[in-house]
Amino acid sequence: MPEAPTATKYRSTPWPIDTMPPGIPYIIGNEAAERFSYYGMSGILFAFLTEHLRNKSGAAAPLSAEEARAWTHYFIAAVYALPLAGAVLSDWLLGKYRTIVSISLLYCAGHAVLALVDFPAVTGVEPKLLLGLGLALIALGSGGIKPCVSAHVGDQFGKQNEYLIPTVFGWFYFSINVGSVASMLLTPWLLKHYGPGWAFGVPGAVMGLATLVFWLGRHKYVHIPPGGSAFFDETFSPDGVRAIVNLIPLYLFVFPFFMLFDQTHSAWVEQAKSMNGDFLLFTVLPSQVQAVNPALILIFIPAFSYAIYPWLGRWFVVTPLRKIGIGLFLAAASFAIIALAQHRIDAGGRPHMWWQVMAYIVITAAEVMVSITALEFSYTQAPRKMKSLIMGVYLLVAIALGNFLTAQVNEYLDEQRKAGSQVLEGANYYWFFTGIMLAAALLFVLWSQFYRGRVYIQGEQ
């Protein structure tokens, strides 16, 4: 079992250096492997539910598109709701390191359960039941460690090297997408040729590797001690309350972005089934087209940091809130492209997947401006003893809420379909979400003029 840190065993204050902290490579390596495991299984979840799910007797029992979208987005909502519990556990009792190592074991168990879903004759258990258990364990694992990992990154920095925080959060996000692009290309291929057992099992093995890599860096990290009762004192202090009150409106404007963005794992996959996926010498599977997003991230992160943001800075001050505002409008534009492609499908055509590639270019630019910026901004606006808590609030209000509402919309549509009614059919489905995003972006522009916050960095007094 991994060792538990003590107050004297590990360093508890940032290294007094003006260069990159020594623990960062281990955190980045862990994140790449963990994201491979998460996006590998989540990338094939919709396809598995609609094409490969069986019942206890082994007969095919796939879900409808609406039911599968609801399952997918309820799962994503759980993944991003549970970080709040992980944040409290971390900031109050265990500290970030012990929380990450302990909960990662649940994560590995969830992958092991999912790998058994394809063997009802062996397990004797209804696959849908095993699926629910496996997804619940993964939600506990992924959700529980999520706010701690990103806050653990920021904890490595002090006043002397705080200027490197934006760069590191960019590379942190870069590592996420290195893992994502590899898994989103590999796991759909495994699902098609070797079945769900291998497609879910390989990401589970990589999650075990992620846990090992993180443990190996234990002597390199800065281990900020848990706050104990001081965590509650700071949370309910004037600064703590002010930070939460300031940030929640921001998250309420951002959650429509995740209503749209996370549908790249569900509705966009369903649409891709009706598209021409032939690209010169190879054919792209509907689930594989998702790999365009993380592949573009690998290009866009340095492009935005070193070219686009400096160019925009020639015309106006590029603040975090202005980045987010531009990104929200881009998200609406991406869904408009998808809606136009769906019009062609509704008319009986089979448009090429280049339509989705164009939409991915736009929504990935939006992701860089909204998701990366909100992550970094949330960390800097959180008082020192509640960094993980603020990350948990962000993930709950912005991402979990967005996915929960998307699942609710699809449950309603499924009920209407079963009742013989047609609501938000075809392209209207995408125009509906485009309108929500556009309205949120306009309101955000008005609200952002009045935001006032404060920056908190570890090591500052």
Structure in words:
The protein is an all-alpha fold. It has a single domain, classed as Growth Hormone, Chain: A, CATH 1.20.1250. 71% of the residues lie in helices and 1% in strands. The chain has helices spanning 24-52, 65-81, 83-94, 96-115, 120-123, 127-155, 165-194, 196-216, 229-235, 238-261, 267-272, 292-312, 320-346, 354-381, 387-418, 427-448, and strands at 278-279, 282-283. A two-stranded antiparallel ribbon has the order 1-2. The chain is globular and about 60 Å long. Mean pLDDT is 87; it is low at 1-7.
Terminal Cα span: 36 Å
Unreliably modeled segments: 1-7
Averaged pLDDT, please?
A: 87
- Radius of gyration equals 22 Å
Structural domain count: 1
Helix percentage range: over 70%
Tell me what portion of residues adopts beta-strand conformation: under 5%
Taking the sheet with the most strands, its summary is:
2 strands, antiparallel
Topology of helices and strands:
Elements (H helix, E strand, L loop, with lengths): L23 H29 L12 H17 L1 H12 L1 H20 L4 H4 L3 H29 L9 H30 L1 H21 L12 H7 L2 H24 L5 H6 L5 E2 L2 E2 L8 H21 L7 H27 L7 H28 L5 H32 L8 H22 L13
Antiparallel strand pairs: 1-2
